[in-house]
Amino acid sequence: MEEQKPNEETSKVVCFFGAGASAWAGIPTFNDFQKKAEIVCDKLPEHSPEKKVFQCVLKDWRTRYKDSNIEEYYATIEMHETLNFNNIKKEDSDCITSAKVVTVICNTIQESINSKTSKIPYYFDLIWKLQDGSTDLVFITTNWDILFESTKRSYLRDGWINYGEGIFAYNASNQTNPTEIFKILKLHGSLNWGICKNCENRNIYYTEKMWNVLISSSLGLKCPKCGNKLEPVIVPPTISKLTKANYFQLKSIWSSAHENLRSCEKIYFIGYSFPETDVETKYFISDALKSNTNLKEIIIITDQKYGRYKVDFEERYLSIISKINSKPKFKFVDDGFESFCLQDSPRMK
After folding, report:
1. How does pLDDT run across 200-244, given as a tens digit for each residue?
2. Angle ∠(194,195,198) on CA atoms, nearest 5
3. Which among 129, 222, 306, 330 is least surrounded, fewest beta carbons within 10 Å?
């Protein structure tokens, strides 16, 4: 079979992050999200607008969608808005909207981060481990947090992060010329992205500001072109969402991710379990890997699992790997994210 020739935008090594790659910093996984959100809600000031939003969303989530994780719940609310189920009136203070779910998501992630453990430079260790003298690697993630970007204190000023086509620095004039740039493709948006829904191009900008600055009425960031307030870019985990005008720029990110998965030589899956509920991402990855004739090795990094949980986890991966034409080598590494990053780290010498 003829070897596939990747274009200049693809990398030889892909590192794919799932929720488990952020759990070390205190960020909840999708299945634990409701419990963490309840803890955050309890700590909010009693009569604050945020607390009322949390209470409304959590009540609806517990009563009508108790078996859904946060991604499933968010996607359902988005669907209801699109189809206008129950004649949704967004001005109703008790109405559950996607904007309110985004508030809960962003606040919960930000407030769940452990200020001590999040400063441990695991991603620095990971980058050092994977780049092996070259920056020919790309990171793909389903996560909304900015732990990876925060590996360097000022990733906007230093300009060391490339989010892909269509994602612009909010104040590019302040950037320096970096010695190395790493591409991270965020399939579901990011806590530090803001979109202008007023401009025709609906540009997406990234900043060093977190979600609370993006959505605060008094501190909200303004579009550099029209002055309209930027809104957070937190996208439900459905490829069909990209057909909506609000997020058409994300198509290029998904396309780039697909091309890199289709042409790379080595893949690391970290903290991703191919959950049965995330069917579209499973099809997306499977379709790209199936036709990859360059792929030589797959490494799956996960926490230790036992019994039926271990069997189910490995079977989900094997169902994908068995369909890959290049028949790559693969192995499961169950030391966990932190231990994997620290192996051979210069910090440990």
Report:
1. 777 888 887 666 666 665 567 888 888 888 888 888 766 555 665
2. 140
3. 306
3-state secondary structure of 296: coil
Eight-class DSSP state of 226? T
3-state SS class at 232: strand
Strand partners, 231: 195
Question: Do residues 220 and 134 touch, judged by C-beta distance below 8 A?
Answer: no
Q: And the tokens for 131? A: 């780049």
Helix H segments across 44-95?
Answer: 49-64, 70-83
pTM equals 0.88
**At which residue do the structure tokens 């906007």 appear?**
156
CA distance 249 to 107: 25
Longest pairwise C-alpha distance within the chain: 66
Cα separation, 226 vs 41, in Å, equals: 35
Are 194 and 232 spatial neighbours (Cβ–Cβ below 8 Å)? yes
Query: Measured between alpha carbons, how far is 298 from 309 in angstroms, rounded to an integer?
Result: 20
Of 290, 294, 285, the C-alpha closest to 263 is 294
CA pair distance 75, 236, nearest whole angstrom: 5
- Report the alpha-carbon distance of residue 56 to residue 54 in Å, rounded: 6
C-beta separation of 45 from 298 below 8 A:
no
- Structural domains of the chain in order of their starting residue, each with its CATH number: 13-27+116-348 (3.40.50), 30-112 (no CATH)
Q: Which of 268, 284, 278 is nearest to 320 (CA)?
A: 284
List all residues 6 or more positions away from 117 whose beta carbon is below 8 Å from its beta carbon.
Answer: 24, 25, 26
pLDDT digits (tens, 9 = 90+) for 27-66: 998 889 999 999 999 999 998 888 999 999 999 999 999 8
CB atoms under 10 Å from CB of 24, counted, come to 18
